Known about the structure:
Layout: H1 3-14, E1 20-25, E2 28-33, H2 56-59, H3 61-64, H4 70-89, E3 91-94, E4 99-102, E5 118-119, E6 124-130, E7 133-138, E8 143-148, E9 154-156, E10 161-167
Antiparallel strand pairs: 1-2, 3-10, 4-6, 4-9, 5-8, 6-7, 8-10
Amino acid sequence: MDIKLIQELIKAIGKTKINEITVKDKGFEVTIKQGEIHTEAPQMMQPVQYIAPPTPAAVAPAPAAPAPPAAPQASATPPANTADQNEGNYLTIKSPMIGTFFRSPAPDKPPFVSVGDDISKGNVLCIIEAMKLFNEVESEISGRIVKVLVDDATPVEYDQPLFLVEPN
């Protein structure tokens, strides 16, 4: 089939409303298509937004902010003031790393320390597991454990408070 014939067919088809034509000539076949080519337009993916779970610091101010019910606001305010006063008297032992907090050396063993226990400098307080390594957290102060601020087997962040200690 001659190229000039193919070009004439394209021009002729362009002037009509025919969408497709196939011409066969001596074992040679040509298909000419016109019109809109329907391709599926790429779909835009919506960006995924990660919303971190609320931290204790973010949760504490929230109850005090809504003012409509007077009684809940009044009950929320005194514990916050008491906590501020208590934190002034106590020292905080913070996490030295990111990982999973464990209070005991094994699930069937007692915790390293409990509320009311006296501790001294160098005592093991807990274990933080990070990347399959179990790191013992030792006390840098002497005193009495007043409060354990983290639940067993929960993730902790760097510099997150773990224990409140009343110094000796």
